[in-house]
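$ run holo --ligand "zinc ion" --emit tokens
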Amino acid sequence: MTENIVITYRQVPINAPPAFSKVVTPDLFSSIKMKAVDVLFKKAQDGADWSGFCYENDFTETGEVVIDIKWVQEHIYEPSNKNILKIYLHECAHRLLPDMSHNAVFFALNLLLFLRADKHSKNLFHTMNLYDIQDETDIPKCLDWAYQIAHKYVDSNKTAEECAEIFSTQYTEWCTWIDGADARAATTRKKWLDLHERVRDLLLQRWMFLVVGCLLGLLIRTLIV
Ligand SMILES: [Zn+2]
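-- output --
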């Protein structure tokens, strides 16, 4: 920046790049049951380590997500439908879950979108990986939860926006339940130990009654004889 010079930009609608409009279509939004999210194409610096990103809503003009324009331009390679959808839907999942990182809810919603978009890009969900759930500590357990809830709702009539709300609520409930798992296990263990002790005492009492009964029987028999 030189003296008295600043830079600025103004967002103006333009025709979508053909590679983008070929795959992000009204039919796609109908399949994934989601309202379209605006896209801002930007040019990343050489060597930048991002394909797209999602600002916090307050930092956007229309809630748009950002995609590096190289993914829709022909340069070294032909733009790939799968890559474009993968980046766009990943960022859309962030837009629908503004308070979530790459956690189980994000993974579940991302998976739901990918599964619903399957007819537009076969096996799109194969492109998901642990990056999409990297902020969880217990990844196996969270993957299991995310996989199950995504499959439960994938064929439902719920919109993607509704699924985002449902997943968020159920995640909070699930986390609370998981947090109480140790306490529940300790309570169950104590119950079993108490029961075991009661049964043992009962058996001991019965043996004592038996022995005393036999002794009394013998004594009475001896006295009578
Ligand atoms: Zn992300």
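-- notes --
The mean pLDDT is 91.
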